[in-house]
Design a protein that fits this description.
Layout: H1 3-16, H2 22-29, E1 34-37, H3 71-82, E2 90-94, H4 115-124, E3 127-131, H5 151-175, E4 179-183, E5 188-189, H6 197-210, E6 220-225, E7 236-237, H7 241-251, E8 254-258, H8 269-278, E9 282-286, E10 288-290, E11 292-296, H9 302-313, E12 320-324, H10 333-352, H11 356-364, H12 368-378, H13 383-393, H14 401-412
Parallel strand pairs: 1-2, 1-12, 2-3, 4-6, 6-8, 8-9, 9-12
Antiparallel strand pairs: 5-7, 10-11
Helix pairs in contact: 1-13, 2-10, 3-10, 5-6, 8-9, 9-10
Bound molecules: L-rhamnitol and zinc ion.
Zinc ion (ZN) binds next to loops.
Length: 417
Amino acid sequence: MTIITEKYLLAKEKYQSIGVDTDKVLKAIDQVKISMQCWQGDDIKGFLNPDGELTGGISVTGDYPGAARTPDELRQDLEKAYSLIPGKHKLNLHAIYLDTDEAVNLDEIEPRHYEKWVQWAKKLGLGIDFNPTFFSHPMLKDGFTLSSADDSVREFWIEHGKRTRRVAAYFGQELGQTSINNFWVPDGFKDNPIDRLAPRKRLMESLDEIFSEKMNKAYTLDAIESKLFGIGVESYTVGSHEFYMGYGLTRDKVICMDAGHYHPTEVVSNKLSSLSLFGNDILLHVSRPVRWDSDHVVIMDDELMEIAQELVRNDLLERTYIGLDFFDATINRVAAWVIGTRNTQKALLKAMLEPIQELKKIELDGDYTTRLAFVEELKDFPFADVWNYYCQIKNVPVGMDWLKEVKQYEDEVLSKR
Ligand code: RNT
Ligand code: ZN
């Protein structure tokens, strides 16, 4: 018996003493799929433009060597990352990550331009989620896409949106897992607008046009992502929280909540319960805002724990799609994926190891002293022994061992790019 197994058995006993069955929890955590964002691998450059520069709508900082330059390199890096993460997961692709020799514009994409991704996903047993790309493109005019006052701009992006839904349906059909197609547009103004209403009306109408084609919900679901502000659009974002809450609830869309898209003291965790009462499925963009929507790599901080607890305590995992959304180009990109994904899994595992019914009863009884004492003591319970055991049985490195593999990969592969 390995020391990891021995420790697990001790942890199991300890959790049993508070009524938690760790074996059951291990089965539950293994069901949770995390959608890993392709864009952490190359700083959201994609393969549409040969020079791959970010030309507006989104930005990334850092120049750590070794970024993927081709789809094959990106797949190689992703494979490395998946091999260091327990469980079977998904890939989150952006439209600009097409893999084809043809010169294709965003309003021309077709499923066949993503065929190689599907072949690869089949080989690895992954699902694929998708995103139309409304940035880094000359048709992003003065900061506007779907809400532009210029008909030709809107038409271009509407066509793009329509096409992404067909690509997402293709992913869903081929891979047997629903592909979430997430719409986020950067549209907004740096300074105070006179007319806040008209762009929102145009955005609403453009989206209605995009979604007018009926898709098979087993293959793809549309999601919509709001934002409070961004660099260059500090004063007004067309697709605000209220806009998309209203849109999503009236059009039966999956509402995406990005942890970095609200006021600095506002948290996504506190929104999930309300949303769950009125909407259907939820999409999460697990991210880490440092003072603003900075998309730092997800760490095990209080908000990540709160998000995990909300999902587990309220039984929302069944209805929640979990995607990661961070992009840090100042560190090894494979390491970034591994850290962010493993942390998200760890937070969920820790949340699953709570005696939830017991805690709810204590709260209903009004014993807030015990409630506080209990959750504080729980923080010291040996959840890491359960996590390490989970890694061991899934044949992925335990503890810091994954880092050695990433360093070796950096020496042998990334540093040669
Ligand atoms: C941007 C949104 C969006 C993007 C990706 C790349 O603020 O969070 O989700 O990060 O589409
Ligand atoms: Zn996001």
